[in-house]
């Protein structure tokens, strides 16, 4: 896979040494067991895959290069570059401005932009409406485009099946930038609806079967379907794609469920289900799959707790937290500064969107075992910072350097 020029501040010698060593031993990426870092009183089990994905590195490379190559120009990002505060703050400090916040609220009025400005499209992509807004201002919308190719692959699939008269069901968070972009591209070709989870998929099924009347549709899916959506006509042939960072198992479960509903409603078999349900299995993002599978692999090993590092508004990170929470006390932190001391930490409760202050998070025992991973937009340097901070609570921070040398020599 292509390698990118990512600023060295985001790299970590320790994590790079570990990742390289694992890669050498497992080139086909079949082994999802974690890497054991045994420091004596503290054992850290590091997920097999975590951190920057292809799309994030690609976006960072383009954005930083654009800043470097265009001194004196006004540079804007449509919204947050990726969902990580460190990367976004670094760009802000270099003079980059965000036109919108993550919820789509305008921060810089369109009318203040002109054709000499540079506008970067973030990794999530953007809507066709915003592309034409930029064009109307004389700004070439795709000149500085960091949309991830794996997101574009979803758009292409939606277009392909849309042109074959399938309605597109997008499994995603309706307000997430990527889902808004996918919805916009998809609805250009075909009827499109967003479902955010299995409970909404169950609701949608009641409209597919006719159990609920079309008149009630708006009550359940207001703002989540394309204009002119005809409940009776547009739910007869469907396909499911996803926001690439959703739980892969949930997308699969939703697709399997809708497929089964179509099979029963239209009395189809494995041989002719394609008449009503499009095959979209090849749209899942490799990084989301790898990171989630690595967490599942990590959770097979006994541990006391889990720490997941990433931006609080990062969708893919919250799904890693969700997986860990099913088995262990789990703390979602954005960086090492949230580990206040050996007794206290600040952590994000993504269910209720609030930061919590917890005490006595480290169990008192001879050896504490912590599972550690991070989201696809979190720099490895931040994960190393977390490891070093944890080691400092045991007075053994220097052990991190020795470990870097060990992995570098394997
Ligand atoms: S998580 Fe996947 S789709 Fe999203 S930016 Fe990374 S590689 Fe691209």
TrEMBL record:
Q: Which UniProt keywords apply?
A: 4Fe-4S, Iron, Iron-sulfur, Metal-binding, Oxidoreductase
Q: Name one GO molecular function term.
A: 4-hydroxy-3-methylbut-2-enyl diphosphate reductase activity
| A family per Pfam | LYTB
- Kindly indicate whether the keyword 4Fe-4S belongs to this entry: yes
Pathway stated in the Swiss-Prot or TrEMBL entry = Isoprenoid biosynthesis; dimethylallyl diphosphate biosynthesis; dimethylallyl diphosphate from (2E)-4-hydroxy-3-methylbutenyl diphosphate: step 1/1; Isoprenoid biosynthesis; isopentenyl diphosphate biosynthesis via DXP pathway; isopentenyl diphosphate from 1-deoxy-D-xylulose 5-phosphate: step 6/6
CDD domains hit by this protein: lytB_ispH
- Which top EC class applies here? oxidoreductase
Q: State its cofactor.
A: [4Fe-4S] cluster
What Gene3D superfamilies has UniProt attached to this entry?
3.40.50.11270, 4-hydroxy-3-methylbut-2-enyl diphosphate reductase, catalytic domain
UniProt signal peptide: none
**Could you say which EC number(s) this protein's record lists?**
1.17.7.4
**Record-given protein name:** 4-hydroxy-3-methylbut-2-enyl diphosphate reductase
- Please name the source species: Chitinophaga defluvii
**Source organism phylogeny:** Bacteria, Pseudomonadati, Bacteroidota, Chitinophagia, Chitinophagales
